[in-house]
# Entry
Amino acid sequence: MIDKLNIRVYATAVKDRKVLVLHEEYAGEQLMKLPGGGLEFGEGVLDCLHREFEEELNVKINILEHLYTQEEFVVSRFRDNEQLLTVYYLVEIIDENEFLIMDPCIEKTEWIPIDTDGNPFILPVDKIAFEKLKERLL
# Structure
């Protein structure tokens, strides 16, 4: 039975036709995901994104535009009682010299090419957001 809602806010930070991804282990599974995370009570989605970038990567961002909001019902991959709602934005990192992995769960970061035939993401809504990004940057 679904009895919780988890609102997630993520970003596509793009540089030289590449998008920033994080590699981390979560619940015993290796994940490649976009930067961002969970909305906290009393926080707006844009504030959440600013906080997540500072907490995870020690950088400030400019939020350029909304990219995609999940439209279908999705149950969390990790908690079967939890419904996800995910929002994605296109952002730019203000000063990459400040970039430092702050979250011990993040094993590494990587800039992956946008101009690829395949879709490298395994999380279903990240897959959709990556396709939306490719469309937006045509």
In short: The first helix runs from residue 45 to 57. The first strand starts at residue 4 and ends at 15.
